[in-house]
Specification:
By secondary structure, the chain is mainly α. It is built from 6 helices and no strands. Helix content is 64%, strand content 0%. α3 packs antiparallel against α6 and α5 packs antiparallel against α6. It holds the Pfam family DUF5683.
């Protein structure tokens, strides 16, 4: 009995020495993070995503330039120019057909009425054209607003992702391993291996 107690005490003392010899990795990491946050602001900038979103909200594409993704700014400008162009085109055509419809309803001559009094466009065509052009105009406005919000979100998310450590050790390397025993009836599987 005495021998068992001595062995237990010996094992516990050896384990306790081993436990005290380890460094607290979370404490070291927290000290490094605090140093970066408040002293040098090198790796982690907590206001960077908010700034990128703010700049994109003020002028589209400016958040992408702030993130140093210069190639994205012309894409944003083109993406917002297309719905703007279609909005203006559809709006001017809608006003043209609306004016012609109002003049015809009031009994005046419109641009689609010939000199002899005949019309090239019927009343129902004028009504349908107004309806279709109004829908296209509203759809262009909606798509422009959606693209505007998406470019703000993209700038903010990109600013968040720029702060992550992405080195070559964080990669995916698929490999195929053939089992010689199951060559006639191959099996498919997925294996993840990770190291720290």
């Amino acid at each position: 009995m005495f021998f068992k107690k001595n062995i237990c005490v010996l094992i516990l003392s050896i384990l306790s020495f081993h436990l005290y010899s380890q460094k607290d990795s979370t404490k070291v990491k927290n000290e490094k993070v605090e140093k970066n946050l408040f002293v040098q602001e090198g790796l982690y900038k907590p206001l960077a995503p908010a700034k990128a979103a703010f700049y994109s909200a003020i002028f589209p594409g400016l958040g992408q330039i702030y993130n140093k993704k210069y190639w994205k700014a012309p894409i944003v400008w083109a993406a917002l120019a297309i719905p703007t162009y279609y909005y203006q085109t559809n709006n001017s055509e809608y006003k043209r057909f609306r004016t012609a419809f109002r003049l015809r309803e009031a009994g005046f001559q419109d641009e689609f009425t010939l000199d002899d009094g005949s019309t090239t466009v019927s009343d129902t065509t004028l009504e349908r054209a107004q309806k279709q052009l109004r829908e296209n105009r509203d759809l262009s406005l909606l798509s422009g607003v959606i693209l505007y919000v998406l470019q703000i979100v993209e700038a903010s998310v990109n600013a968040h992702l720029l702060q992550f450590n992405t080195d070559d050790n964080l990669s995916l390397k698929p490999t195929f391993i053939m089992d010689p025993m199951l060559f006639d009836a191959p099996k498919v599987g997925l294996t993840f291996k990770y190291t720290f």
